[in-house]
Amino acid sequence: MVSFPNCKINLGLKILRRREDGFHDIETIFYPLPLCDILEAVRSPGLQFTATGRPIPGDPDANLAIRAWHMLRRDFHDLPFVDIHLHKQVPIGGGLGGGSADGAFMLQLLNRKFGLGLDGDHLAGYAKRLGSDCPYFLVNRPCLGQGRGELLEPLPLDLSGYSFLLVHPGIHISTREAFSNCRPDDSGPSLRSLITQPVGRWRNTVVNDFEASAFPEYPVLRDIKQTLYERGALYASMTGSGSCIYGIFEKGKAPDQGWNAGYEVISILKK
User: Is 133 a catalytic residue?
Assistant: First the structure.
């Protein structure tokens, strides 16, 4: 069975407060984009994991797709072994949620393939244990995210008439590093209200709080954002804890030429 885990961007991200459990309460708006990995699982005599496409750093056993299988196996002892193959296309360490999507889609894939009978609430429970962003990819539509990002409220937000440009400079910013440098602030209006404004008005109101610490540390990120505006973006922002910067453009406009040769530039063009 094959599935196609897609990425997401964050339209604004407010870091509200540090919690007693060491995590932070946030407010953000998740928006899905059709840039996808390819994930396959077939019944096998033993558990195997292979990957192609982008190199995936770290221990393969820490991959969220593998961890999803182990998590279900602990509760479903007769869950068959599978041969998992992941073709990685979403940039890694860019704040696009590709790893979280792989884990969430694997939960769904195993549930369907082997008839585990898990409903949405039970799948969400497993996804929360995998990671804060994982539950979003079970919903996979525009949502307000609160708590650690796992409390989701679908929103009637449609950006299908716009084009997107993703610029990834190849910098890896760990989530732990990003949160350690942030300054929580729960003041100001909710993103729920700000996002109802026209996209062209978001520039000064819909803010990713991680930029305040990431841009001084990595000035190239600020430069990319400014360049997106100079090239006609209606709105530009870092997504998640970085380091991918995206721009939202009018339909048919997403200038993917003339960028630094070391950057990866991905156009999602609405014609």
Answer: yes
